[in-house]
Amino acid sequence: MKPLIAPSILSADMGRLADEISAVEAAGADLIHIDVMDGHFVTNLAMGPKTVRAVKKYSNLPLDVHLMISNPLDYIDSFAESGADMISFHSEATCTPLRVVDRIRELGIKPGIVLNPATPVSHLYEVLEELDYVLILCVEPGFGNQSFRRPVLKKINQLLTLRREKSLTYRIEVDGGVNKGTIRDAAEAGADIFVVGSAVFDRSNYTEEIKQMRTLIDMEKVE
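RE: above sequence
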C-alpha cells in the first residue's frame, strides 16, 4: 500500500489555519488529520464539526477525523455532514462498535477504530473485517508533543500479520510521536498512514520535512 502522510492540525498555528492547511497540502501531504476531543473521554477540548467544515473549505485533501469522544454514535452524522472522509473512534468509547462502524459506512465514509497504547489488538478481532483502517496511538490520547512509545511497534506488526493471514485490506495508521526518528520503525512494523504534528508544523520548511519522511518510509527500502 502506498504510504500516506497526514499532518495533524492540532499542532498547526490555529490563528493561520487556512494558510497552514494550504502549506502542508502544497508540501505534499496526502490527508489532513483532525483530532476531536470532548473534555470527557479525554481531558482536553479541541475541534468539532465546525472545524471540520472550515478545513473542508480550504483543502482538497481527504479529511481524517479522529474522535476522542464518548458516545461516538451520537455525533457521526454531524461530522459526516461537515465533510469528514474518514472517521475513527475509540474502541474504549462504546459498547457497540459495529453499530458505529455501520453508521459511518452508511454515510459513505471510511470507518476506523482507534486503540490506545495499552489496549490489545484482540479488542478488534470481531470487527477487523468491517474496517477501512485501524489507528494505533503511540502516545496517550489527549495531548500533543509526547514521546513515541516503542512497545506499540509489536501491536502494529500484529495488525500487519492479521491483515495478511485473513487477506484483509484495512490500513494501519499511527499517531503520536511520529517524526524522522520513529517513522521508519513504524513503517517497518507495518504502518502505512503516518500522522505527523509538531514534526512538520514546528519546522520552517514543510516540503523538506515531508520529503525526508517519504524517503524514510520508501517501502522498497523498508522491505
